[in-house]
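WARN retry 2 of 3 for item q-0093 after timeout on previous attempt; input resubmitted unchanged.
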Amino acid sequence: QVQLVESGGGLVQPGGSLRLSCAASGFIFSAYAMSWHRQAPGKERELVATITNGGGSTNYADSVKDRFTISRDNAKNTVYLQMNSLKREDTAVYYCHLVTARSYWGQGTQVTVSP
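OK item q-0093 returned
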């Protein structure tokens, strides 16, 4: 069955960096686009970044453009989110997302940006 397991979250100071990972299994990883979403307390889940199946095209929310980078390693069945210049407003639970015939979500990883 499809599994998406996020890791790499934590507490970081404003201006710091984190790299999130999402390890995928149970499907042909290289055949599908992947995305990262986030949900802050009291807010709706929002799309952060997407990457095509081959990694050749990416898209970002305006709020993270030029600070975050999505990438993938199809040999390792893993998608990454490199987050630089973190701001307090980046605090959220970050989720990995896959859409095939249905939608799949990981369990999420908490990112807290605080002095």
